[in-house]
Amino acid sequence: MSDAFDALDDDVAEGPLHPMIGVAADSTSPVQHAPEPRTEAQRQRAGWEFPAYLIVQASWFSGFGLQMVLFSYLATQVLQVSPQLFGLAQISLTAPSIFLILFGGVLAERAEGRLLLLTLHALASLPALGLAWSVQGPGFAFWMMLVYGLVMGSIGAFMMPARDAILNEVIFRRQALGSQLSLQQGVAIASLAQFAAQLSGLFLGGMAGRWGITTLLIAQSLLLASGAIAALFLCPAPVLPGAAVPATNPFRAIAESFGVVRQSPVIGPMILSTFGIGVFVIGSFLVILPIFSRDAYKAGSEFLSLIFVTFWLGAFFSALAMTRFRHLRRPGAVMLLAQGFGALCMLVLTIRLSPGGFLGLCFVWGLAAGISITVSRAIVQSAAPKAHLARVLAVYQLGSMGGAPIGAGISGLAVQNWGIYAAPWLPAIGLMAIVLILALFTPIRSLRGE
Asked: pTM for the full model?
């Protein structure tokens, strides 16, 4: 236990903070070379930039929270599809990332970040309107949900590396104004905005039975469109000014990012970690929990929304706590402890819990997930070479998003063949195996942020 508590520390390293959590900056630190706003107008714009970034983040994830409930509700309650088809529907949302997210990383390094986010948010507002129109007609069918999932999944594949890569420069420019905000805290605050936005979207999704699916799909479209407006207040600069923009073709640029991952003793194991999360956590989360709501508790959209809300409420409180720490002394150990605890929570799903006990378990699981998400993001953001940041982040995100459709398919088959209470054994054991591999055979457990 003492080792677990030693992993937490909020002491500040001497000197300006390097992106590596808690490491004092050296002469080559990107922090020291961050573009400093010169005019008063530039300084004022840079002061607005971090709040604007948080609004961009919140607009996407509030729409994403709505989508989580509405998409599951349409498949399980309106169309009454089988667990296998429901797994296929979730695959349509996540599978495009396998093919497109690496190209999204290349685009994020070559395009102007503000314009890219503005365009992607504007495009993301359209599929929900199309689904709202389809639901109103008598011919609403399962294939329409598959089309929606493929389109939104494709947009998300380009959105994620663009949004995550620009965070580093937003924080660096804020530090140039004299802010003491560290990268660890910036990632935690961005996660806080994400979880709070998801909670609001999930809460709205629970109103589907009262307000109607069409109304909420239009609300989802408007929320996503608001991100395009907020992107206008970001600084009009490349994602990483001064970084080497790859002049090679996209396939060679992607190959370079994999080379960086292979050479890093930190990023490679982190890719394995996020792949395990994708297969064993995200896949089961997207399939098993909605099936629990329908089959175990005979509930509708409100209880399904409540399940997701309690989970992300736990994640919200975790992210709130993480903003307290400018850096962690043992970030890798903290992440592994959180993921191991999450595996134990999945094991508890095999017990026939009351509705209140089930929601309580989801909250505790969310606490562990919030720590894992925040710390793993900060580790990769700080360890990635800045000239390859967006592409490395794309590879990192490919792990979770690429693993999610695999996990969704496996979870659907497990529920179909073993039953709802036996299915969680598979992801729980799988995740624990990944945690043990990382702890015993990689340097992640001993990674120090000081």
From this structure: 0.71
